[in-house]
Amino acid sequence: MTAVSETIAPAKPMPQRRTNLYFVWCGVLGDPVARVAAAIIILLVLMAIFAPWIAPFPPNEANPALRLMPPGTEGHLLGLDNQGRDILSRIIHGSQLTLISGILPVILGAAISIPLGLIGAWYPRLGEVIMRVMDVLFAFPMALLAIMLAALMGPGLVNMMIALVITLVPYNTRVVYAAARQERELAYVEASRAMATPDLKILFVEMLPNVVAASIVYSCTIVGAVVITAAGLSFLGLGVQPPIAEWGIMTSEGRSFVFVAPHIAAIPGLAITLLVMAFNLLGDSLRDSLDPKTRLTLVKHRPGPGGG
Amino acid sequence: MSILSFAGTRLLYAIPVLLGVTVIVFMALQLVPGDIALTLLGRMATQEQLVALRQELGLDRSLVVQYLGWLASLLQGDIGHSISQQLPVTQILMPKIGNSLILMAGSLFFVLTFGFILSVLSAPRFRQLTDKLVVGLTLVLASLPVFWLGIVLLYFFGFKWKLFPISGMYNMVNPGGFGQLLHHMILPAIATASSSIAVVTRVTRSRMIDVLGQPYILAARARGLSRHKIVLRHAVRNTLPTFANIGGLQIGYLFGSVIFTEIIFNWPGVGLLLFDAILQRDVPVIQGCVLIVALVFVLGNLMSDVIVHALDPKQR
């Protein structure tokens, strides 16, 4: 769909027909707040990738003489923790697992939800069964289901990820299911059926690109919540295990020393807040720019790089 | 449809969901690595106890039979025995539920009050400074991890300025009194409420902006009603169903946050019990806590549906 309109565009200008990508481009990049959010996320991702090279110290190198020292200590910008480890280095290294445990479950959850939702929308009986199962999963508050699954499978990064994926599937499936149900009624699907296109080809070749947008937007809006949930699981001791650096477990370790050295818990928590805020801002902006109700006004009012 | 019959139908719909919940909590036991009987009895169990429990659970029989047996004892109020405390789970769980519900009620109060005030302040001033400030505030509140906010509140209000107690529900030396309970509850309730305040405000605000754009609001203005009266009489009235709906949905979400605030503020509720059970790998207690929370969640949603139904004439 995207490729077609891009190849047609230079031949004859078609301002009426815009692709979703165009709206994302203008809506998100035309919004200064979203630009800042995107910049923060890109910076954090770069920080995670190049952590071993930019961190001043290895994450677990301890200097017991300087333990609990506050931010601004010579050579240790953000201070040291209860074991004398450099907090800045641990924040930089910890960004890796914090980002992975927030983003990977969302991607895996979407990868399971999209086929589930599509197939459910196509075969009504099966769809009814799938959605009733999802209803049952909805009966658990999100954090609680993840906590129960992670607690029973045993602590650890992989088990935490599995628990988060299972927790996320019902939310995303509902989004895909609703989008696919609408899509199913459209003329092009009927045309494909009339041409005797196999069901699976209609679903995964014709309908998938149109349904995927809804799922992606939804996924972007929940990454923030998933980062918090993942950090929360590590905080409870169910996710990443010490001494590995991760922001949730760093907050948890700092809790025991909050009255002596409040910065140990304050700094990783602040980092989580910043990351989640950036994801939430970007997700909101993305949703607005893809929502047919608001996207035209956004593009009109914002002098975007796409020209508007 | 009258309210009663509506509530009755909704209750009937809730039963299969609750049955599904029990299936999931039962099946979750299969996730535990290793021998189930050993998991349920703990490492201190004797060989005879293990054999007896295996017999009782019917571990040699099919999962369906095991589930039905488990469900039967569940319906009689038997969730199993705690490994760490050697007591029936129900007996440990019951007093904690009340404590958690008290904290939840407190935070729900903050959620509804602040959600309402912030929406009424911001929606009529759409895109003005007040509105932008409120939107900014909801963004911050929605991004704060509850466990961190709890620690921050604890440090400043409890430790540094000594305005509020830092742990528990009552004073250890001289327990009792409703005032003392409120004093202990304020910090954990605010920490629990924060992200839900953001959600409720966002949804209620955008609904109220929609309402304020309706023709009947224009008509009211044409008749010369003050903005004050329009907002309070017309806009608020028509926003209430949405407000009640999103407020009710927070019940489950608050339970997710309560787990963390109870740990940080040492509040003797289900969350703290769950945390201890996780540390001791006390599987029956974990199952009991999850079951109870899911039950409260489903019933809470049902209650809010009934309230929305009562508030919204269009649904009748």
Can you give keywords for this protein?
heterodimer; A: mainly alpha; 13 helices; elongated; disordered N terminus; disordered C terminus; B: about 325 residues; mainly alpha; 12 helices; about 75% helix; globular
Descriptive notes:
The complex is a heterodimer of chains A (308) and B (316). Chain A is 72% helix and 0% strand. Chain A has 308 residues and is an all-alpha fold. The radius of gyration of chain A is 23 Å and the shape is elongated. Chain B contains twelve helices and no strands. In chain B, helix 1 runs antiparallel to helix 12 and helix 6 packs across helix 8 (178-212). The longest helix of chain B has 39 residues, at 227-265. Chain B is globular. Chains A and B meet through helix 6, helix 7, helix 10, helix 11 and helix 12 of A and helix 1, helix 6, helix 7, helix 10 and helix 11 of B.
Strand content of chain A: under 5%
Structural class of chain A: mainly alpha
Report the order of strands and helices of chain A: HHHHHHHHHHHHH
Given the structure, what is the number of helices of chain A? 13
Give the biggest beta sheet of chain B.
none
Mean pLDDT of chain A: 85
Radius of gyration of chain B: 24 Å
Radius of gyration of chain A: 23 Å
Percentage of residues assigned to helices of chain B: over 70%
What percent of the residues of chain A sit in helical stretches (DSSP H or I)?
over 70%
Low-confidence stretches of chain A: 1-9, 301-308
Order of helices and strands of chain B: HHHHHHHHHHHH
Largest interface: A-B, 44 and 50 residues
Number of separate strands of chain A: 0
Mean pLDDT of chain B: 88
Give the overall silhouette of chain B. Answer: globular
Q: Helix segment count of chain B? A: 12
Structure summary, number of beta strands of chain B: 0
| Termini Cα gap of chain B | 6 Å
